[in-house]
Amino acid sequence: MDLQYNLITCGCGHSFGSTKMTKNYCTKCGSSTNIKTIQHFDNAGELSSAVSLANIPKEISKELVEKIKQKEMKQKSFSMKKSSDPFNILKMATDKNGDLNKNSLDKKLTDEGLLEITSEYLIGQAEMQGLLVRVNQNTWNWLS
Ligand SMILES: [Zn+2]
Question: Which residues contact 84 (CB under 8 A, 6 or more apart)?
Fold first, then answer.
């Protein structure tokens, strides 16, 4: 009688090979009730590659899903920061007369939750780009 090489899968998600004609036990969780034979092979080589295929892709795909999730989260937070244009905040903090007050910019930054950006930094950047000019200690005007 020829040996039969069986690919067996367990309810726990583990797959393993068996040549036994007797009752099988999951080699991972030990269950004998949750298992079922899903495929028969003619030789041990075919069975062993089927077993590794049955087990490895799940691990890899789990890892991949995690990586993709993390990547998506990073991209999301990045694009959120990008969409709130810092110079837009400067414009929003500017009053009707075109005066930008440092205190109102501080308030805007807090309102927008942009706690990692300081008003000094933003104003400094805008000054360097020639967008703002200081008119007194706490006030800037737009040049463009
Ligand atoms: Zn199991």
Answer: 112, 114
